[in-house]
Q: What sequence folds into this?
DNA sequence: TGACGATACTCCGATAGACGGTATATAACG
DNA sequence: CGTTATATACCGTCTATCGGAGTATCGTCA
């Protein structure tokens, strides 16, 4: 099962090719500030997702003397994300049923 | 962030006190067979959740010469599960927005 | 009778993903 | 001129999970 940082990275890249630092900021926004990726987590995840075929390197640009490496999500990456969503939704539904069947209704 | 096996373990124990092996089977049912916990994962997670205060040992019984240790979810455990649900729902909603804003609509 | 599967817990080594931090470099801001 | 923002690279550590072996009882079925 895909973990939270990876889920958010794939989500961040989904609309259009993005570069590492841009993804870092997108993930922060997408998660309402809850997830602040460390550089180590980000670039390791990016390498892994490329190796797994969920992302590909789209292009490399030099902007203001700094390298920007753009990553693009693949059809496989989209499929991974969609399957992950379905699985999470199924788990959530199951958890809600379990919580609602508690005697002392702690579930709101 | 809580991981899938832990999420399902907390969900499994939510309705009523359950023992290790029963939780193992519940998790399999709750996840539609997708998650089959290894004993190592289960009992390590149980120990961890007790140490963290999400579960408590409810009772121990000997049934047919075999020990059964029952775990009960605490209010804190219910809170952890509810917060986890909210967070996952928020991530899913964000991912769906991202996927729907793709040019070539791969999101169904 | 004896093998097998289900029940039930214990223990251990390996792995992968994430954490936390440092390093390097440029540009912009005050 | 120091700090923050931009942007990537690298490294050691940690932790949950994986994968499997071990111990033991009970029921089934040939």
A:
């Amino acid at each position: 099962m895909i973990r939270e940082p990876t889920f958010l990275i794939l989500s961040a890249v989904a609309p259009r090719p993005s570069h590492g630092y841009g993804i870092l900021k997108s993930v922060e926004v997408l998660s309402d500030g809850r997830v602040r990726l460390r550089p180590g987590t980000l670039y390791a995840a990016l390498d892994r997702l490329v190796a797994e075929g969920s992302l590909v390197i789209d292009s490399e640009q030099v902007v203001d003397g700094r390298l920007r490496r753009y990553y693009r999500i693949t059809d496989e990456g989209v499929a991974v994300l969609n399957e992950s969503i379905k699985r999470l939704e199924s788990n959530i539904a199951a958890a809600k049923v379990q919580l609602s069947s508690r005697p002392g209704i702690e579930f709101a």
About this structure: The longest helix of chain B spans residues 75-100. Residues 19-22, 24, 39-40, 42-43, 63-64, 66-69 of chain B lie near DNA strand C (CB under 10 Å from a C1'). Chain B is about 55% helix and 20% strand.
